[in-house]
Amino acid sequence: MRLRADWESCHFPRRVLVVEPCWRACSRLCSILTAGEMEVYPAGDLITTVHALPSFQPNLIVAQLRLPTHNGLALVRQLQSDDSSRQIPVLLYGDITTVEERISALHFGAIDLLTEPIAGAELVARVRAALKARHALLALEQASQTDHLTGLANRGVLEDHLFRAWQAHHNRGLSVAVIIVDLDHFKAINDTYGHPTGDEVLRVAARLLAASVRSSDLVARYGGEEFVVVASDCAPAIAVSLAERFRTRLAEEAIVARGKDIKITASVGIAISDHSRQRGSAELLHHADEALYQAKQSGRNAVCFYSAADMR
Fold it and tell me: Which one from 225, 226, 244, 290 is the annotated catalytic residue?
């Protein structure tokens, strides 16, 4: 009873895709896993499995090694070749498995290769253990990529994403807009009202910034009171519109501290990718920073767009 209670206290997705060409065997496996409190989706071959991935979004795959046309190892290789499915653990099984097959399964990325017959209780236990391990790993990865105060992406994620966006601009001609936000007179807020209030100001600004841009844009905390948005395939006019939307919303927001409303404003700099002006993502970020400096020099609470002529 204690083991069951411990499992039920763990709240995380339990979607399991079962890949078994024999209808009777597939039905048996699905029944076992459903009784083990899994959400199960059956598939008979590799093609059906691949088509089910976007809609079902399994947390784990249990697959027969002897599949028609393509075997279970081919399925593992297919999943490993795609960024969207690479992290899905695969548990293979087969009636007779050789040492070479077990080694190959682990080499290609399967978490194990079981030999049939498999007891129902063992299968459920192995699936549960794999799901718990995956959940813990994803939680650690998310924590390593997130700014703990604001919940936004951290600087490491920003730099990697910006580099990839620049590569897409270089290879496919997709424009990239970088928007840098700096909260005006933030030190004065910390000095006057204390760091807890300053932290709340950062959280509010982060929430409003994320709500002001497109869902496809990356929003990150750059450091201190600075934030950066990386907007791929974004025209200059759209980038300016997004920045102005945030600036206006922030200026209208008020945080109460010591019985007073604290008005918050921000200065914003924008730069768009252009090979004639930049040699890489770092220089694109630098141009946005120069535009930010111009916004502050103009009196703050402003949005400025990078122009090489204006920066001379």
Answer: 225
